[in-house]
Design a protein that fits this description.
- The chain has 101 residues and is mainly alpha-helical.
- It has one domain.
- Helices cover 53% and strands 6% of the residues.
- InterPro entries: Bifun_inhib/LTP/seed_sf (IPR036312), nsLTP2 (IPR033872).
């Protein structure tokens, strides 16, 4: 009986000494506070390039923005010179609610 108790104590000590596994974030990804999940910011960069050039959004961009909606604010904050009103107009055309970043 003492051996079982000693093994149990040893197991608890060893399991407490190893940190829990963490999730790595790939390069090009960011952890969004808004959605709580990770997003691929590089996937929507092309869409924001077209907004900056004054072009209309393609359906592919709209689909991509809806898929990666959790990181739109991260990209908006990282890109200087983007007018949030213009961005919101384009997002509204894609069926995405107005972003308050």
């Amino acid at each position: 009986m003492k051996n079982v108790a000693l093994l149990l104590i040893a197991f608890v000590i060893l399991s407490a000494s190893f940190p829990p596994p963490t999730e790595a974030i790939d390069a090009g990804r960011s952890r969004s506070k808004r959605g709580g999940g990770s997003c691929l910011a590089s996937a929507i960069q092309d869409c924001f390039d077209s907004i900056a050039k004054g072009m209309t959004m393609s359906t592919t961009c709209c689909d991509t923005l809806r898929e990666h909606q959790s990181c739109i604010c991260d990209v908006i904050k990282s890109r200087l010179g983007l007018d949030i009103n213009v961005v919101n107009t384009h997002l509204k055309a894609c069926g995405i609610a107005e972003m308050k970043c």
